[in-house]
Amino acid sequence: MSTVILSSKYEIIIPESIREEAGIRPGQKFEVFRVGGIIEVVPIEDIKSACGSLPGLNTEVEREADDRV
């Protein structure tokens, strides 16, 4: 666990070891929300990076003809 300090501009620096482990890069966007007394900071991933993230998922879905555009 690491301790960080909130600057006068309300900025927090994520420690280098955590940035490296999480693959965080400059300019990356995050969602920030509060759950009870905890502040969550979650990286927003590019949708392309999700491709192939669910191996074995059955994508065969029965559709009716009027489901198509």
Topology:
Elements: H1 16-22, E1 30-35, E2 38-43
Antiparallel strand pairs: 1-2
Tag the structure with descriptive keywords.
69 residues, elongated, alpha+beta, 2 strands, two-stranded antiparallel sheet, 1 helix, single chain
Structure description:
Helix content is 10%, strand content 17%. The termini are far apart. Strands 1-2 form a two-stranded antiparallel sheet. A hairpin with a 2-residue loop joins strand 1 and strand 2 (38-43). It has a domain at 23-50. It has 69 residues and is α+β, with helices and mostly antiparallel strands.
Shape: elongated
Estimated structural class: alpha+beta
The percent range for helix content is 10-25%
Rounded to the nearest angstrom, the distance between the terminal CA atoms is: 51 Å
Q: What order do the SSEs take from the amino end to the carboxyl end, as H and E?
A: HEE
Strand content: 15-25%
Strand segment tally: 2
Overall average pLDDT: 86
Largest sheet: 2 strands, antiparallel
**Sequence stretches where pLDDT stays below 50 over 5 or more residues:** none
Radius of gyration, in angstroms, nearest whole number: 19 Å
Strand order of the largest sheet: 1-2
How many alpha or pi helices? 1
Short description:
The chain has 69 residues and is of the alpha+beta class.
